[in-house]
Amino acid sequence: MPKLPKELEKAVLSLPAKEKDKLLIRLIGKNELLIQQLYFQLLEDESDLPHKRAEIKNLILKVSKMYHDTPGWMMMDMRDLNGRITQHVKITKDKYGEVELTLYLLNTFFDNQLPNLEHYSGKSDTISLYIAKRTEFLLKKLPKLHEDYFVEFDRDINKLLERIHKYCPAYYARQMQLPKSWEY
Known about the structure:
The chain contains ten helices and no strands. The protein has 184 residues and is mostly helical. The protein is elongated and about 65 Å long.
């Protein structure tokens, strides 16, 4: 993003309030992410987060139950869903939801797509690496949350770690030295 020259910044700040407001509204209207962030900050609040998380969880569950004839197609869906989680976090700054939803995404696909994730093959190589990297991401994010939340994730993170060491991501889990269990 280009830096605003000081003299332009001073000139904009000296504009009459009505002109500044018009300019501000025009600029905000050109940035969809900013619109969504402002909408959340100004018209919603943290009490809306459970509903927003539930919407994403419902979508994850729905997509995870769809027929995926190859691990590649399944990975495309997982990446799309992960993008929705990332968008949610950019809008709401919901660090707890980022961990919760990513963990839910991975475990739900193991629950509903085990035949595609059970055995390592050339077709499952890419998704195996993807799942291992997402798990590594979770293990880095989890300690950044308040320790009171650890008990809420303990069962699900250990379930995921067991699965990545048992099924197709096992090679990458070992290579990345991911733990077989997590303790807080």
